[in-house]
Design brief:
Elements: E1 22-27, H1 35-38, E2 43-48, H2 51-60, E3 66-69, E4 72-73, E5 76-77, H3 78-88, E6 94-98, H4 103-112, E7 116-119, H5 124-138, H6 140-143, H7 148-157, E8 161-166, E9 171-175, H8 196-199, H9 202-218, E10 222-230, E11 233-243, E12 253-260, H10 262-295, H11 301-314, E13 318-324, E14 335-339, H12 343-354, H13 362-369, E15 373-375, H14 386-394, E16 400-407, E17 410-419, H15 429-454, E18 457-466, H16 471-479, E19 482-490, E20 496-503, H17 507-516, E21 520-528, E22 532-539, H18 543-549, E23 553-560, E24 563-570, H19 576-584, E25 591-599, H20 605-615, H21 618-629, H22 641-648, H23 652-675
Parallel strand pairs: 1-2, 1-3, 3-6, 6-7
Antiparallel strand pairs: 4-5, 8-9, 8-12, 10-11, 11-12, 13-14, 13-17, 15-16, 16-17, 18-24, 18-25, 19-20, 19-23, 20-22, 21-22, 23-24
């Protein structure tokens, strides 16, 4: 009985008899009976407006099957009518159907002997079903010999749909408590008097009858779960059988309770899936942590990509992994690193994707929108072309994901992963992989910057923009002035401070232009003299910022009379086209006017010392050394400025003057040697 197509509450429709007519006395002074009663062919309806009129109707005609009464009645209430009915008709079903009830009224109604209680906000069909249930329950006393008190006891004991069956499998009664969720597949009273074999196919009925016999033999409760098809769809039920304890017409009987456990089983399934998903997620997070540990110390981009792809491909969660990029518009993205699959196999798939128009190209979408693309089911994915779908099927791919490798606004390509089984890359797993993509991009960026700083060769790129519509180029044209970049400072969150010197314009005119500029977030006037002023500027978007984010080192940048010039150095392996396209997001008319390989000098420690020695005076060097060895730069300070000055035999202001000049030259020398190619 673990997978049945029907429940004990379902009958063979060909075995049904004609519908029995139910006589109902409806008592209500304010509202007419619902249409479900007044228009039903199987209901004979009489009405009364008061409790007294209802008692008169019952006295005149004792053949009513059920009384339905409002609680609020003229000259009394429904509970008073219920008491009178119970005195004269103890087993007559009585349903309190009210619009003015409460929990207390419902409690009093059941205590007084009401068969059922129903608020009027329930629909008429529900009322009709409750009446049918009550009438079916009342038939026990006349058709099976079980008393009404015994029936109510059973109903309360088994608050689900229940069936009384004798040892031969004959239905003696259908029971259901007020809180049960009935199976609305039949008129329950029609089962009474029938046998299991009248209602079910022979094989199924035999199994049910065997369960009845086993229950009577053991004298205990038997439990079984089974699946059933009902008019509302497929449901799961827990069947519980127990001996009735009384004999009916000399035959033993059992009570079969059918409880709908569909929701419980669904919750159990979801809980199991959630546990499985959490376990999988924890293990994936462990895998990603191992990958990150392996990335520490990676010296090249190739090594970073190899570590990531091999670790993913060797795991139990994924088939293979590859990295391609960076993406350049209108060009293909050949995979640079592949693990877990032959390179030519993934190259064919990447070529098929790259050849599609941008609007249909998954690789272009990942890079352009900086969002992952998930293929949950290869066979049904609308995003795929027929060729892509065919190639993926040949690779036994069921799911896949493309994760952007982006740091700041610079994209370093795409990480592609094939899932080892259906259902991967869910709402919890995908963010973990996207975080991995961000960290991989950060590592690639760090390696590129390190290699650029340490390399003795680079690619020098010179840009020129005429008459730009925004930024410092536009301002230089309108004010006939010159902007020149003095320095850059990178802050957290990809924020970049630009220190810009301006000649040929007043501070007031410049601040008015900066206030109106859409590319300037904040600015601060640092210094001002007759010929020049210096601004600290935080730009929302600038050409210099775009170049820095592509991994280049900006050597110089000027804007004069509407012409912008930028000179930058990039690593030898840089994609020049991607740098140009990124710069053009700020200056659409930008041209690359020069590209050449240059040698970057390697500065030794001796050169640094010599350069610094040439810049420092003897007094500045003496003050700097004395302050350092006396602990002036420790925190907290081991010597005060006054104590150091006294040791040197000079005044405190003179010491601070020497220190300030020496510190400026020291920092300037370090920065010049770090960024200058001269």
């Amino acid at each position: 009985m673990t997978s049945e197509k029907t429940t004990l509450a379902t009958t063979d429709r060909t075995a049904r008899t004609s519908v029995r007519t139910v006589r109902v006395l409806y008592v209500d002074a304010d509202e007419p009976p619902p249409a479900a009663l007044s228009e039903a062919e199987s209901v004979t309806l009489s009405t009364a407006e008061t409790a007294a009129a209802a008692r008169d109707s019952l006295a005149a005609d004792g053949t009513f099957d059920c009384v339905v009464s409002e609680y609020d009645l003229p000259g009394g209430d429904g509970l008073e009518l219920l008491e009178a009915v119970r005195d004269d008709y103890p087993n007559l079903p009585f349903v309190l159907y009210t619009g003015s009830g409460s929990e207390a009224v419902a409690s009093d109604a059941f205590a007084t002997g009401a068969t059922d209680y129903l608020p009027k906000d329930a629909d008429g069909d529900t009322l009709r079903e409750r009446i049918d249930r009550a009438v079916a329950a009342a038939s026990v006393e006349t058709e099976s010999g079980v008393s009404g008190d015994r029936l109510r006891e059973l109903t309360n004991a088994f608050p689900d749909v229940a069936f009384v069956l004798d040892e031969n499998g004959r239905y003696l009664e259908v029971l259901s408590g007020p809180s049960s969720k009935d199976l609305r597949t039949f008129q329950q009273e029609q089962l009474v008097g029938k046998r299991l074999h009248d209602a079910f196919p022979a094989e199924q009925a035999d199994r049910y009858l065997d369960l009845v016999h086993r229950t009577l033999e053991t004298g205990g409760v038997e439990t079984v779960e089974y699946k059933a098809e009902t008019e509302t769809g497929e449901r799961w039920y827990e069947g519980r059988t127990a001996p009735l304890g009384d004999t009916i017409e000399g035959r033993e009987a059992v009570v079969w309770v059918a409880r709908d456990v569909t929701e419980r089983r669904e919750n159990e399934r979801r809980l199991a899936e959630s546990r499985d998903e959490l376990t999988r997620l924890n293990r994936i997070n462990g895998l990603i942590n191992d990958i990150l540990q392996s990335l520490v110390g990676s010296a090249t981009r190739e090594e970073i990509e190899r570590v990531v792809c091999e670790e993913l491909a060797d795991s139990e969660f994924y088939q293979f992994a590859w990295v391609g990029g960076p993406w350049v518009k209108d060009e293909q993205m050949p995979p640079s690193t592949v693990a877990g699959i032959e390179r030519q196999q993934i190259e064919r798939l990447v070529e098929a994707t790259s050849s599609r128009p941008d609007s249909e190209n998954a690789l272009s979408r990942v890079v352009g929108d900086d969002e992952s693309v998930v293929i949950s089911e290869v066979g049904d994915a609308d995003l795929l072309s027929e060729r892509e779908r065919k190639l993926m099927a040949e690779l036994d791919m069921s799911t896949a994901v493309l994760v952007p490798l982006t740091y700041g606004t610079t994209n370093y390509g795409v990480l592609g992963i094939s899932g080892a089984c259906p259902g991967t890359f869910g709402d919890r797993e995908l963010p973990a992989l996207e975080t991995l993509g961000e960290i991989v991009a950060f590592a690639i960026n760090a390696v590129k910057n390190r290699n650029l700083l340490l390399s003795d060769a680079a690619v020098e790129l010179e840009f020129r923009v005429e008459n730009p519509e925004r930024g410092f180029g536009r301002i230089s044209a309108e004010l006939d002035c010159e902007f020149s970049l003095r320095g850059l400072v990178g802050l957290s969150g990809d924020q970049l401070l630009e220190y810009v010197a301006v000649e040929g314009a007043s501070v007031d005119a410049l601040t008015d232009q900066l206030d109106d500029s859409s590319t300037v977030e904040e600015y601060r006037l640092v210094t001002e003299d007759d010929d020049q002023c210096l601004f600290e500027i935080d730009s929302a978007q600038s050409g210099v910022g775009q170049l820095v984010e592509t991994g280049t080192v900006v050597k110089s940048a000027t804007a004069e009379s509407g012409v912008v010039r930028c000179l930058a150095e990039a690593p030898n392996d840089v994609s020049v086209r991607s740098v140009v396209e990124e710069f053009q997001t700020t200056y659409s008319g930008a041209e690359l006017v020069s590209k050449q390989e240059v040698n970057r000098p390697v500065h030794t420690t001796q050169e640094f010392r010599q350069t610094l020695a040439e810049k420092l005076t003897e007094k500045q060097r003496t003050a700097l050394q004395a302050a350092y060895f006396a602990g002036y730069y420790e925190y907290p300070r081991e010597s005060t400025g006054e104590e150091v000055a006294e040791s040197l035999g000079i005044s405190s202001p003179t010491l601070h003057q020497h220190l300030q000049a020496a510190q400026r030259k020291l920092v300037g020398t370090f920065l010049d040697l770090q960024t200058s190619g001269e």
